[in-house]
Amino acid sequence: MRVIALLAAISLAQIAVANIVNKACNKNPSTCACTTLSTALPGRVHFPNSTEYEISNQYWSNRQAEIHPTCFITPNSTTDVSVILKTLTRLSAPFTVKSGGHTAFAGSNLVDGITIDLRLLTSITVSPDRRTVYVGAGNRWINISTALDPLGLAVVGGRVSDPGVGGLILGGGISYFSGRRGWACDNVRSYEIVLASGAIVTASPTSHRDLYWSLRGGAGTNFGIVTRFDLVAFEQPTPLWSGSLLFPGSINTTLLPLYQNLTVTGLPSDPDAHTYLTSIFLPSLGGYILLTDQYHATPPSLSDPSLTPQVFRPIASLPDPISHTTRLANLSTLLTAIDQPYGARQTWWNTAVRATSPSLLLDILSLHEAHVTRLLAVANGSGSDTITPFLTFQPIPVNVLQAMQTNGGNALGLEPADGPLMIIQSATTWTDKEIDGAVEASTQKFIDAVNDLARKRGLDNGFVYMNYAGKGQDVFGSYGRGSRERLRRVAREYDPLGELRRLWRGYFKLW
Ligand SMILES: Cc1cc2nc3c(=O)[nH]c(=O)nc-3n(C[C@H](O)[C@H](O)[C@H](O)COP(=O)(O)OP(=O)(O)OC[C@H]3O[C@@H](n4cnc5c(N)ncnc54)[C@H](O)[C@@H]3O)c2cc1C
């Protein structure tokens, strides 16, 4: 009798504790989930004022780094990610995911909730036949090239050392090798992904095919957390050739038509070539400068870097550049050559136009100059000392659009018949938080003006590349109705209860 009474008392106490926990969880699900997971996954949950928290809280853009989540969770394995997602959905705790932390806008990585930082998922394994590299989702691109360069192998990946593989591949991924092979998302053999339910699934052209298609440009946000990318590896036994040319802005009426012609005829005729062109306002160099970087995966000479590939010669032979450098280098060297330091505020926006008219590109340059004038007025008005606006033209020639069609195509909604296209990317770096709103407003005005102008001339396309998009841009709307509806159907299938829609905060969502 006494035993029964004791047991009853224990269960009543347990119910009371569960009620207290439930109430606490209802009141503050983030804190509750952090505490629950610190018991379930010892050593993997990091609270403010700890060294591990500070390590996770490093972001390229200060607009991210200044926000502090309740805790960071650093899973060590796919199973850990599964435990985390099951717990977060059960407790209704809001979360987001960080791979390399290179998104410009706030709210992409950090929320007033939980950030799952994938930085421990850094495995890199090459298959015995050298055709596949299995890559953990917390890797940076420099890790991959450092592992592959000595083997004479490469993958279609990022062009800068520090961004993460996660965000770059799931949004698309423009690479030095895109001319022949498409974007990074077109060169994933399979994705290991943890769904909202905690189930671990492999999506490939033969298994979960709709999910595989969706992950090629549809972002993780809507489908689950990718823990491993199985990437197509290919032989890259030689260094790459690269050339960098800096011109005064005054050459624009000569340079832009040549660049447009390169996009339309040069690049499709030589799929190993890759390039972009940037206009930067730098008063220290006298105002506007034009910088074009050029890359080639099969150099014309392995001993003489000054031998420029044929496709780039019309631009390389323009007179009087401010500087002109060429080199032969492996991928790791090229990746580290473009340094984009941490510690400033950033915004990136973009749109795409048809690349068939040199005068459109020149007029876009003028619109950018009006945007720069607005930004300088804002910065001077606030007494802010530094603001650097960039405009980058990134070609999507027809050969890239064709290469995107492999394995059933991707979710970006781009067809070869749409091309050739030019991504118009506006980026600004500044320091003063007070002018965030004005910088965003001016950038939106610039992008709207570009779209209006292109529309008037019948040269609009409007594709918004997720990885360069501003927070408010309608990325999935720009993929076209068919693509967005299919993505939504697949998201409903793999997240039938809408848990990711409800709990995954920030970044680009389908609804
Ligand atoms: C210096 C610099 C150089 C760049 N170079 C290139 C380039 O060469 N080519 C190019 O195409 N783009 C480039 N970008 C853009 C870049 O692709 C995007 O900023 C991209 O989002 C960065 O990925 P990340 O993992 O570092 O970012 P994060 O901010 O960590 O990730 C972005 C979002 O992706 C989601 N996500 C990340 N990992 C996962 C995962 N494993 N599973 C599910 N969802 C996930 C999260 O929602 C997250 O909010 C560059 C950006 C910078 C700042």
TrEMBL record:
GO molecular function, one term: FAD binding
Keyword Cell wall biogenesis/degradation belongs to the record: no
Signal peptide boundaries: 1-18
Statement: the UniProt record of this protein carries the keyword Signal: yes
UniProt keywords, alphabetically: FAD, Flavoprotein, Oxidoreductase, Signal
FAD-binding PCMH-type domain boundaries: 65-236
Family: Belongs to the oxygen-dependent FAD-linked oxidoreductase family.
PANTHER family, A to Z: BINDING OXIDOREDUCTASE, PUTATIVE (AFU_ORTHOLOGUE AFUA_1G17690)-RELATED (PTHR42973), FAD-BINDING PCMH-TYPE DOMAIN-CONTAINING PROTEIN (PTHR42973:SF54)
Protein name: FAD-binding PCMH-type domain-containing protein
Species name: Echria macrotheca
Record lineage: Eukaryota, Fungi, Dikarya, Ascomycota, Pezizomycotina
